[in-house]
Design goal:
328 residues, alpha+beta, 60s Ribosomal Protein L30, Chain: A, Phosphoribosyl-aminoimidazole Synthetase, Chain A, domain 2, 2 domains, seven-stranded mixed β-sheet, five-stranded mixed β-sheet
């Protein structure tokens, strides 16, 4: 039987698998550019040059279908994994996919989820290698993503004298979540929309890695305050950042003013932002010339010592407490 003549049996699970594989990218018969092994402790681990990461997205914890569309929920699940590979300086190559479909979801929702995974993975040239599908009382997406990197980035590479950089701008995800929780999503759709389906510069990590002058890197998935501490602790250095230099995303300021909230918590403790935090000995002017229409902002410096210091807008410097986003 020719491959093009093959069809899955007319059973629900097989129809779902057929939808997911409908746009599947052919498996590239090429290995990683270099060989390295990295244990747990960074945004991804590595074996023989292959980067590996896993994120799980659970219904009513990471996504709610009364807030988002099935397509948005799937896109967010994929982006969270791609961001981990990007933070290691890599590009995604293949994936293992585990789906637990809520048995109360309609056939239409199940079909849209399968189509969304097919589309989101295909447009990133990510090959589905296999996985599993089940049904349960709660929906869940489990993605194991494999990537490769020409030069791997880790959390432990920061050195005294480095500058601290942040890609993009932050604050939208926490603000968007608050709006959704309080029934005000329509007041700032760009903020609630970002929380439901973040759009990020997914190739930035690979670009930074190939540029060759980044030393340490992490993605902002749990909050800027937490990620700064991860870099400082992993690298055995002190990091000092300036509050007035932190790039705040468009719309966040208006939201804070309208609701009467101080900016600090929504900027430093906003999880699921998926921007990159990295260090480099190069000055900001060089990155400004090299970047491809995507902002990279110098927010601080690295020195000898330990911990994270914050210089406030009033000029007073104090310890910055880590307040990680946590689902536990």
């Amino acid at each position: 039987m020719k491959k093009k003549d093959f069809h899955f049996p007319p059973l629900g699970e097989f129809r779902l698998i057929e939808k997911i594989l409908a746009r599947n990218t052919p498996l590239a018969e090429t290995g990683p550019e270099s060989r390295f092994w990295i244990p747990a402790g960074d945004d991804a681990a590595a074996f023989d040059g292959w980067l590996a990461t896993k994120d799980i997205s659970v219904e009513n914890t990471h996504f709610r279908l009364d807030w988002s569309s099935p397509e948005q929920a799937v896109r967010k699940a994929v982006v969270s994994n791609v961001s981990d590979i990007s933070a290691m300086g890599g590009a995604p190559r293949s994936a293992l996919l585990g789906l637990c479909l809520n048995r109360n979801w309609s056939e239409d929702i199940q079909s849209r989820i399968a189509d969304a995974f097919s589309e989101e993975l295909a447009k990133r040239n990510i090959t589905v290698l296999g996985g599993d599908t089940v049904a349960g009382d709660t929906g869940m997406f489990s993605v194991t993503l494999i990537g490769s990197a020409a030069r791997v980035l880790r959390r432990r590479g920061a050195k005294p004298g480095d500058f601290v950089y942040l890609t993009g701008a932050i604050g939208r995800s926490r603000a968007g979540l608050w709006l959704l929780e309080h029934g005000k999503a329509e007041a700032f759709p760009e903020l609630s929309g970002f929380h439901l389906s973040p759009e990020i510069h997914e190739g930035m990590g690979e670009w930074i890695s190939r540029f060759g002058e980044a030393r340490a890197c992490i993605d902002v998935s749990d909050g800027l305050s937490s990620e700064l501490h991860h870099l400082a602790l992993s690298s055995g250095v002190r990091i000092e950042v300036e509050e007035e230099k932190i790039p705040v995303a468009s719309g966040v300021g208006d939201f804070l003013k309208k609701e009467g909230f101080p900016a600090f918590d929504f900027v430093f403790n906003s999880g699921e932002e998926y921007q990159l935090l990295f260090t480099s000995p190069l000055s900001e002017s060089i990155f400004c010339k090299m970047q491809n229409s995507f902002p990279i902002t110098c927010i601080g410096t690295v020195s000898e010592g330990s911990g994270v210091l914050l210089r406030g807008r009033n000029g007073v410097t104090q310890n910055l407490e880590a307040k990680a986003w946590s689902h536990l």
